Amino acid sequence: xxxxxxxxxxxxxxxxxxxxxxxxxxxxxxxxxxxxxxxxxxxxxxxxxxxxxxxxxxxxxxxxxxxxxxxxxxxxxxxxxxxxxxxxxxxxxxxxxxxxxxxxxxxxxxxxxxxxxxxxxxxxxxxxxxxxxxxxxxxxxxxxxxxxxxxxxxxxxxxxxxxxxxxxxxxxxxxxxxxxxxxxxxxxx
Length: 189
Known about the structure:
The protein has 189 residues and is α/β, with parallel strands linked by helices.
């Protein structure tokens, strides 16, 4: 995790969270005091972790935590008063919000942070794999389009068009997609 956002109106708790995040090698920590400020901040920025110390000036923080998690980009740790912990956890855990009880025990916070880092790493790997698969699908789509351009223009069979693209890619040390794009330029879309 490279960056974190702390949403808290308690200077003491903010200092404690900041210290622990820095000890966990989080490079950039931004502190805001309300959910409204945090929502505006997150409109054009991505953060790896959002630490919410509830209650806040403008809301309890539960809805905000669920909102962030629903966007899928950040991990969220929500610190709530011990008397509300069970109810808040029951409402947030299925959404993927990590909830810890206040007063915050450093060992519990550290465990929650390690869980958040682990989940964040897993999400990043899935996102990377998803992007790779999207590129692969797009490559296949373009190659297929080029094959059908060859079939219709040069009256080749689908197998012949496929072999032609493959052979040209090997001969020119290019990708099949690059050859397909050239075919499409030559023979039209």
